[in-house]
Each structure stands twice: as C-alpha cells, then as structure tokens.
User: Fold Phage phiEco32-like COOH.NH2 ligase-type 2 from Chengkuizengella marina.
Amino acid sequence: MNPLFLLHGNDPALKCLWTNSLIRHGTHLPKSLSKDTVIIQWDNETRVSAEYKVLNSAHFTEKAADKEFMIKSLNHQGIHVQTPSSQNIYLQVFLVPVFHLRVLALYRCSLHTENILYPQSEVNFDLRNRQHRLISRYAIRAIYALGLDYGVVKVGLISARKCTVLDVIPTPKLDHNMRELFSKAICLYHGELIEERKRTNEALLGLDVEFLLRNDKGKITFASNFFNRRGKVGCDSVVNGNKWIFPIAELRPNPSKIPKQLTINIFKLMHFAQEQINDPSIEWLAGGMPVKGLPLGGHIHMSQIWLNSFLLRALDNYLTLPIMLLEDRTSLLRRPKYGFLGDFRTQTHGGFEYRSLPSWIVSPKITKGVLTLTRLIANHYWDLKSRPLNDETIQVHFYNGNKEELYPYVEKIWSELEGLDSYASYSKDLQSFKKQLFEKRSWDEQLDIRTSWRVPPFDTLPYK
Assistant:
C-alpha cells in the first residue's frame, strides 16, 4: 500500500513535486483513499476530514497566512517575531526552507528584499555552526508552532545568540532550486513513512533528568562539587555573565523498553549520587523551577522509532498537557523560553530527545506514570487523534498555566487512552499517576525528593 498522497492545486510550476516521486497525487482525494494515508496538502483549499493525517492542512495554512495571527501566535509561544513597530538591526537575513522537522538549506538574502523567491546565495549549511543551529531550530519551531509541517521562514539574525522571525510562508512559490529541495524531501519522507509503518519493535526509552542541590542555609550547592560533567550521574551548565557554571545535577540511567525497569535504574542512580554527595543535609529539588532562574528539564530519549510530527504532537497532547496539570506554580515559570511545545533535539545515535517536560522525578509514582504514559503513546501514537493544543486558546491556557480550563480536555484524552487495546496491561502502573492528576493535586517543588524515593537518610521511612 502506498501510504502517501499529494493533494495539490495543479500548478504546472510545481509539477516536479509529484513527477519526481512514486507517490500518488491529484487535485481531489480519491473516494477509496485509506484513512491510514498521510496527505500532503500543497496549494489546495480542500477541507480534508479530520480522520486523515494531513501535512499543512488548509485550516492551518490559511491561519498562518494571516500576518496578524502569525505574529500573535508565535509571540505567545515565546518566538520573537518582527512587528510593524520593530526597530531591530539585523546582522544577516536568511530564507530557510523547512519540510517535516528538517531544514533543507539556508539562503542568505538582502536585508531589504521583500521578495521571498530570490535569495542572494545558498549558504554551506552546517549544524556544527552555532548560528546555523540557532537559525534552523528557530525556523523549525516557527513552522511547528503554527500547526504546519513545511514552509519557508525568513529569519533575521540580531546577534550570535538571538534571531527573529520576519515572515512565514506556508505555501511558498518555489524557484527551481527550492522545487528540487522540496521534491527530494517529499521522496525521503515517503520512504521513512513506509519504514515506520512496517516497524514492529518497540521504541527504546532513555532519559536525562535534572535536579538541584540545596544546603541547610537555603543556598544552591553546585552539582560540579560532586559530579563530573559526563557519566551516569553528571552535571549540566548554565551561563552566568560570560562564564559557564554547573549548578544542575543530572541522572542518565541505562535505557530500557520497560518503564518499570527504567524507574528502577533511576532509583539505583539516586543511591549512587547520594554516596557521591555524602552529605545528608543537602536537599534534592526537582520540578520545573524550584529555584528562580534555574529551570529544570526531564528529557525523554527515544530511539528505534521514527521522529515525526504526528508522534511529536501526540507527546505534546497526551504527555506534556496532563503533566502540566500536576506542576507546581513555580514550574510554570519555565515557559515559554523552556518547556515549549514540540521541543526536541536529534541525537547522533539516530534517536531524539523530547525536551518539553519539567523534571518529573518528584516522586516514584509520578516517575513511573510518566514513563508508562510515554511507552503507551510511543506504541499507539498513530491511533491517537485528539489535538486540543491545535487550538490557540488552549495553547494560551497551557502557557499561562490555567489548569481549570484544561481539565475537561485532559479527561477526554485519558478516556481515549483507556480505550486502547493495551491500556489494561499498563493501568496498574498508571493508577497512582491518574489518581493524583484527577484529584487536582500538584507536586510541591520545595520538598526534598529523597523522602518519597527513600534515598538515605530517608531509606528507613515506611512506604505510604
């Protein structure tokens, strides 16, 4: 079965998008088209049923083309956008073609050009270049944040560490070079989609999750006092002025396909970390931002699975959204600079890390719940259809931490999860997580997490 269909507007200038590939195409959807088919919608205004998976549906394309909406939407998601009143001076301006979470090329263009079709020159795109990484991440993030999967983003570089979105073109008019780029990207996507649909093995799960150390005077003790940068227990850095400091501790347990085993691996590393610290008076703090200015993350690694936008949006809606309802108020201070929706980073080993979550090791019950929920989503993301975060109002509630407005959507999501064939086999490990979620009990980021994990000196406490 061919799992891809290109729904286009029959523009002769874009003919290579379908003639250079083996995918089916047309200006109308065939009546016999399987609901498992992914549809790439390009310059076509057909309203496609929500039963299908669509790249750049007409709904999102129209919204993104509204400049006022585009500016408002990207701003509330923490993406800098040029407005009519902006007074920025740009070092360079780039055109960035994006297709499905990948930058296809970088083009340098004139500071003053208004024509997106004619860049000055192609840049030798290299992700080892810090500026190229910054620009590419920003372009991908802008496309994703608008509900899109492809387009051309115009990015202005303000400094070595800051850039601004100048424009997003959801259905660009392509010159010869960009037609070739998008044609090849569609062919690559087609092959990856076929391979993913044939996959039978479960994803391998790993993680790096952060916590802080606080002494008996209420001050942060740097993790670098006890741990090296690398290793199963290490430390992570933040910039302080012009220098790097390492206040954040990080657990990097052995990966596993079994959530319960991964939880055990975390527990073992905590005991090892306590032996290294060897000071019972130092508290361990987790969550999103237990100490102002030091955001924490709980990054989940996945390998042996295809990174794709449907998986990423399922993780946003079925994992990050419910976890937000458990967060302490201080945890919400991470966003939108950190913890934004769809935050991911590819890894050299071929997998990726999902980075939207806070540090969820606040208790063993929540930890086991998070990892079990991740397993369930990874196994069934293709069948999970709810996307409340596609609605800009729901996004605003998410970023503002308006929990009461979001509970009905999470209840619906959870009902959908419970309808999955394999939910029963995971229900025991999700029971405590679900109970805390729907009892509306947030975690407390000021509590020492060693208490609930029974890490010394709390290892003699009875379980509750």
